[in-house]
Amino acid sequence: MRTYKYLLFFFSFIALAVNVQAETKRDSIQQVKDMDRYVFRDTLDRECKFGDLKGNYIFLEIWSMSCGPCLRQIPYFEKLSQKYKERPIRFISICVENSISLWKKFLKQKNINGVHWITPILSPFLKENGFMAVPRFVLLDKDGQILWSRAKQPSDPELKKDLDQLFD
Question: Where is the signal peptide (predicted)?
């Protein structure tokens, strides 16, 4: 039992160190200017692009089904989406997953609502913009350019204040 605790501590420390290195690397990545070149799939297998939503702010939730912190943010994200449904902002949940069928099944089983897109785990969208760690929240401006690459989490009450300022 004691060995298990030491191993758990060791691997937790390694994971933290890797995450810090990833954060540093991500900060040095310059975000792509043409966000419309990325193509996603929605739950009805349609192709989706950010350009389809131009004229609106786009708040992205980038998450993974195996990420506990990601799953805890989903109800807050859904509430935020409802709060601003009359505003020129769209809330898009982008799951990082290679299996479309597993993703659809997960959404249905968990009764997760909203607009959902999927992108492969090593997609150019994630790599080129430094969005490899999840959960990640991003705000695109009305032209589809990254405005906030590290938006606050939906559970943070300060996020509503920040979003309200967009419309004042």
Answer: 1-22
